[in-house]
Amino acid sequence: MSHPNRPHDVSFPFSWRFLQTGWRLLFFNQGDWRDDPKQSAAYNRGGYLVEALSHCQECHTPRNPLGGLDRSKPFAGTPHGPEGVLVPNITPDPETGIGNWGKDDLAQMLKTGETPEFSTVAKSMGEAIDDGLKYLTEEDRAAIATYILAQKPIRNAVRAAGK
């Protein structure tokens, strides 16, 4: 599906591009993906797909007051996601995350958008699945599940503002 480009809606003074230099110094780490030799090939493949290609933390990690990722809560979800929607905790925490999901559950959700709780993903995640993730191989979706479910469980009950 084709969409026309939208003009940026970044307000003054953030629309001044040169100001991004400071932000980049604080929050941008340039470099190549490096496999963890202590981990399996599936974990490392999943890490590459999640961190280097898909950038899952951009939506699933809360942000600090300056707009950088809160690195103390990777994948823990946020009520302030893209388009103003809640983005769930996808750490393996059994109470507030996806700790009760199996690898097959997560891999299947990445293909169909349907969760083990019989709901469907919405907005940006639905687009991510429809536009790319459903076309990955079964092995790549399983690798993503391996990587995500191996992360540190973080208790973070993400709720909409005011709830």
Q: Which tags fit this structure?
A:
163 residues; mainly alpha; Cytochrome Bc1 Complex, Chain D, domain 2; 35% helix; 0% strand; globular
Explain what this protein looks like in three dimensions.
This protein has 163 residues and is mainly α. It has one domain (30-149): Cytochrome Bc1 Complex, Chain D, domain 2. 35% of the residues lie in helices and 0% in strands. The protein has six helices and no strands. The longest helix has 14 residues, at 41-54. It starts with 19 loop residues before the first helix and ends in a 14-residue tail after the last helix. The mean pLDDT is 90.
Write the layout of secondary structure elements.
Layout (H helix, E strand, L loop, with lengths): L19 H8 L13 H14 L2 H4 L42 H10 L10 H9 L6 H12 L14
